[in-house]
Amino acid sequence: MIGQLTGTLLTKQPNELLLDVAGVGYELEVPMSTLFALPDVGQVVTLKTHLVVRDDAHILFGFATAVERKLFRALLKVNGVGAKMAVAILSNMAPPEFADCVAAKDVTALTKIPGVGKKTAERLLVEIGDRLDGLGIAGVGASTGGVSANPALKEAQEALAALGYKEAEVNKLLGAVEQEDLDSAALIKAALQNAMRR
Questions:
Q1: N or C: which end of the chain has fewer CB within 10 A?
Q2: Domain 4-63 is classified in which CATH homologous superfamily?
Q3: What DSSP string runs through 50-116?
Q4: Considering only the top CATH level, what class is 79-135?
């Protein structure tokens, strides 16, 4: 399986891009969160990937972070959730926001995502809730008034807020960071790097 690609970004548009890797052009489908994190066309980029093999096509999906790919793979294991819906979920919610939504059992927030009905939302809460801890996906604390249980994450949130970023922006920037084993300084640095790429 193709797990990662590094190459020159040739084209990008909503939910898809073309990446030149040593002269071979790879078409990848990507969530909007990944699209927003990409550099300008012509720049070199590294993406985590997941290959979906179907009878009629082989589809390569790309992700800016390993956390996004972990959640994508977990979503594919939920009954009734295909790759298209998993991409829609990631396009509308960063992994930490999704974790908060699951923790709060917020069916309404999930049904606001295009293609996710009430039954699917309920199934997501039941089937994926127990897996989030094992995936290392921590919430940003949105379900508890913005206070995170992770001290380093909380410090990073407060520092970014002090720099003038709004709560939604803070959540999005930190949501694109692979948070596992990072201290607050590293989280802040990675979040600001994400902000500069936008």
A1: N
A2: Nucleic acid-binding proteins (2.40.50.140)
A3: EEEE-SS-EEEEEESSHHHHHHHHHHHTSTT--HHHHHHHHHH--HHHHHHHHHTT-HHHHHTSTT-
A4: mainly alpha
